Amino acid sequence: MKSSLTRWSVIGYLLFSAFLIVMAWRTHSETTIAIVASSVLMFAMCWANATHLLGAKTALKFMLIAVSFGWFAEQMGSSRGWFFGSYVYTDVLGWRLGDVPAVIPLMWFALTYSCYVISNLIVWRTPVDTKSSYSNILFMSFLAAMLVTAFDLGADPYMVYKLKAWIMTKTDGWWFGETIQGFFGWVFVSLMILLTFRLSTQDLRLQAGSTYGKRDALLPMGLYASAMVFQLLVGYPVEIRSMTVFVMGIPLLCAWAGWRQWNNHETNIVPVSKISEAQLDQSQYQADPLADTTIANIVGPWALPSASGMAHLASHAMQWRKIGIVNQQFDQWQTNASIQHWAPADSSTPAEITQALQTYLANGQALPVWADLAKIRRAETLFIDYGMLSCTLLFCSSLPECYVIPDLSAVLHVAGQLEKHTEYRIRSTAAMIFPVMMKDGLTSPDGSGIAQILKVRLIHATIRNLILHGKPEDVVSALGNRQNDKDAGIIPPLAANALPETSNNMYQALFAHGWKLGEDGLPCNQEELAYTLLTFGYVFLRSLRRLGLGLSQDDEIAYLHSWNVVGHILGIQRELMADDMEQAEAMFAQMQARGRADPISPDPRPGLGVALMATMESVIPFRVIKAFPVLMTRYLCGSATAQDLGIDQRVGLLPKTVFSLFMLITAAIDGMVRLVLPEFSISRFITRVLGTQFISDILMDQTRPLKLPEHLLSNVNTMMSGWSSDPKAPGWMNSLETKIAEVIEKKSIPDENLSRIKN
Q1: CA 239 to CA 251: how far, in whole Å?
Q2: Which of 51, 134, 391, 485 is most buried when burial is the number of CB atoms within 10 A of its CB?
Q3: Is the C-alpha dihedral spanning 282, 542, 415, 361 positive or negative?
Q4: Mind listing the pLDDT tens digit for each residue in 504-535?
């Protein structure tokens, strides 16, 4: 049922509209009646659409702001010459409120609301705002104000010279008698209306309501288009008719292209997570029995510190040696075939370690029974098609979102993997992603995806064993029913003198860290593993959408399915995986909210975020675009993630302006050209260039201290050779991409590395 506020607002409006039409009828002017009737109808349609889109209260707020500002500006203009210059309204527009015809404020709302929706479709490909930072509020408000003024370019001359709706005191302006002040006034007043509305709703999560159909978003576009058609047919002077097609038609085409993207992916139902809070609470105390048992059997029990605080160092030395032996075996796990009947190359490897690893490999390498090979192959093709772009999204969206969860960041912080060895973390991530997503990575003995995944799975188990000083199942069992008790299951950190002098080792740092089991659950628990999986599947697909490159629903499902197969091999429970984007979106938001609700002090995330951004900036040779990684990460991940990672600091005006103009121009050009060439994309072109740079300088540069394994390096080189041209782009764009990449490489890579990469 409608609220009483909405009901009385509608009744009041109907009475007011009837009054206006009656007053117009009394003038016996068909023109006045037509103008008043069409104006109140347009206003009603926009108000109803806004209520449908934004909700009754938010729509009413928008309407009151627009009507109030519009009436005040027009009253000051007609009486004092403010904003638009000196002019006087005639009786053509009907009954006046003060010096202003009553239909004028109604039109201010109809126009600003229509342009609000159109500007959002152009930039965000959704009819509502998706970001609420001050810079975005200002930019989007200005864009919509310019669209309002574009309408006025054709409307004002017609209203003055043809209808004589008002009389200008000064008629020697720049545009058919209109002064430049008039157009500045339109931009300013529209900007104030839109800024006020957006700022007043900044803290709201505006989204299309569950009853707002995709076709409903066409109404504001249709009203704007009808004004364009009217000016095209009867515009005066006649020059207006040619001009209006371009001035109003171009943004309409861009908005329509954005609507098509939104129409392909949005649903009318707000997604709800299939996982309950209770299930996620339980998953925090669940790990990976297969991998955890393997490591526990290899490492054995830990000798913990004595009452004096000193650990049995000799016994600890044995643990480090066993872990080192396990790591040495990883060098043999290069292909899926190499782990099918694996045996250590070194005969000195202890039998108990050999037996434990063979059992682990035998039980962990099989694909799940629900694996769909056709979907896996489709996902591999998509990864290859978006190869260089995939790397940019890895750096600017997947990895940043991965570090949002405080407990995950805490483990990385302790290990020093991102602040001190940023490239190590990036390369280790790539060392899993590339083998998994390359052709036959999961489905052929010649692939290496399964082998790489099983390495990562065992590393996760090692981290848990080190932090907990034992097998996770045993620690949870000892905790009993005191889960989520902040005072239970506390593993105190070890003093510096309780470790060997080589305690800068990552594993020893984890062993000494300490943990609060009752408060935080297990390290690398099932919820955290499932969240990380979403960052490589869901976040990648979400980023493609935000760049205007969204895949079809079937392709998105195939990509998520392939990563779910990866999750199975990683030891993640099936019920914690998402099968489609709606499920993924809901689960991702749910897990992020849970992580943010449990902060850690001191917060390790800003240091990790800044280190990641600095690594990317270091390989960009041009100063004006060095802030591009930060700005792209903000764009793809949102302001909340940027704040979590400490990358929401002020960026210079020039790079920010360059980035904003680039995104706007890209959206406009892509929107128009795709009407003829659906695969055309400037955004894919730019992100491919950046992806090439990131791969070359961060992943492939073997002069750095942390190198990719030679077998993986060879495979990635082969894959990169297939990425040298974009099959979806025209030839001239591929040629331009090659030239830009060469310029960047020459500026940033030593000659000997450049020749190696080209070869």
Answers
A1: 20
A2: 391
A3: positive
A4: 467 777 888 888 888 888 999 999 999 999 99
The Cβ-side half-sphere exposure at 533, using a 13 Å CA radius, reads 33
Tokens of 107: 């039109």
The DSSP annotation for 578-602 comes to -SSHHHHHHHHHHHHHHHHTS--SS
Q: Do the beta carbons of residue 641 and residue 401 sit within 8 Å?
A: yes
**pLDDT tens digit sequence for 726-742:** 556 566 566 655 665 55
Give the span between the Cα atoms of 309 and 392, in whole angstroms.
Answer: 47
List Cβ neighbours of 436 (8 Å cut-off, separation of 6 or more).
Answer: 442, 449, 452, 453, 562, 566
Beta-bridge partner residues of 490: 516
**Structure-token pair, residue 384:** 């290859």
Centre a 10 Å sphere on the Cβ of residue 531 and count the other Cβ atoms it contains.
25
| Secondary structure element (H or E) that encloses residue 80, with its range | helix 56-80
Q: DSSP 3-state assignment of 173?
A: coil
Q: Work out whether strand 490-491 and strand 96-97 pair parallel, antiparallel, or are unpaired.
A: unpaired
**Contact of 291 with 458, CB cutoff 8 Å:** yes
Tokens 């066409």, residue located: 218
How many CB atoms are closer than 10 A to CB 483? 17
Q: Is 654 helix (H, G, I), strand (E, B) or coil?
A: helix
Q: Per the structure block, which two tokens stand in for 521?
A: 């659950």
Q: Per-residue DSSP letters for 378-412? A: HHHHHHHHTHHHHHHHIIIIIHHHHT-SHHHHHHH
Residue 169 contacts residue 250 (beta carbons within 8 Å): no
How far apart, in whole angstroms, are the C-alpha atoms of residue 516 and residue 520?
Answer: 6
Residue 424 tokens, joined = 């190590």
Q: Distances from the Cα of 190 to the Cαs of 98, 149, 221, in angstroms? A: 21, 8, 18
* Beta pairing partners, 101: 96
Averaged over 290-296, what is the pLDDT?
Answer: 95
Q: Are 588 and 539 within 8 A, CB to CB?
A: yes
> What stretch of H or E contains 704?
none
Indicate if the pLDDT at residue 499 is higher than 80.
no
Distance in angstroms (rounded) separating the CA atoms of residues 258 and 236:
31
CA distance 257 to 261: 7
Average pLDDT over residues 399-419: 72
Find where tokens 């960052």 sit: 535
Residues 6+ apart with CB under 8 A from 584: 534, 537, 538, 541, 560, 578
CA–CA distance, 566 with 561 (Å, rounded to integer): 9
CA dist 397 and 377 (Å) reads 24
Cα 165 from chain centroid (whole Å): 48
Helix axes 449-468, 506-513, angle to 10 degrees: 40
- What is the b/e burial string over 590-619, where b = at least 16 CB atoms within 10 angstroms of the residue's CB? bbbebbeeeebeebbbbbbbbbbbebbeeb
Report DSSP letters for 510-549, one per residue.
HHHH-EEHHHH--TT-HHHHHHHHHHHTHHHHHHHHHTT-
Helix, strand and coil content of the chain, in percent to the nearest 5, comes to: 65, 0, 30
Q: 388 falls in which pLDDT band (50, 70, 90)?
A: low
